């Protein structure tokens, strides 16, 4: 049984799933694709995304690897 059903396993769906699991919420992710894509769906990071990453305590990791 899940508490939250997430439709779509792209960057947004997977990010929200991780945040919910960190808070003890059971999630189920469904996606129409049969297998993971071999292509990137997130080639760039916008400033608003960096603000969100900062709130998630992830910004240092992204800035470190983005140099």
Short description:
The protein is of the alpha+beta class and about 70 residues long. It contains 3 helices and 2 strands; from the N terminus they run E-H-E-H-H.
User: Reading side by side through the largest sheet, how are the strands ordered?
Assistant: 1-2
**Please, how many helices?**
3
Strand content: 5-15%
Shape: flat
* Annotation, overall tally of beta strands: 2
Q: What composes the largest sheet? A: 2 strands, parallel
**Gyration radius from CA atoms, angstroms:** 14 Å
Based on secondary structure, the structural category is: alpha+beta
The average pLDDT value, as a whole number, equals 90
Residue share in helices?
Answer: 40-55%
N to C succession of SSEs: EHEHH
Distance from N terminus to C terminus (CA atoms, Å) equals: 42 Å
Which regions have little confidence, pLDDT < 50, spanning 5+ residues? Answer: none
């Amino acid at each position: 049984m899940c508490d939250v059903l997430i439709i779509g396993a792209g960057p947004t769906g997977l990010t929200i799933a991780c945040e919910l699991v960190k808070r003890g919420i059971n999630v189920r992710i469904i996606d129409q694709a049969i297998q993971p894509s071999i292509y990137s769906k997130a080639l760039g990071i916008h400033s608003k995304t960096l603000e969100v990453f900062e709130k998630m305590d992830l910004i240092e990791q992204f800035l470190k690897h983005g140099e």
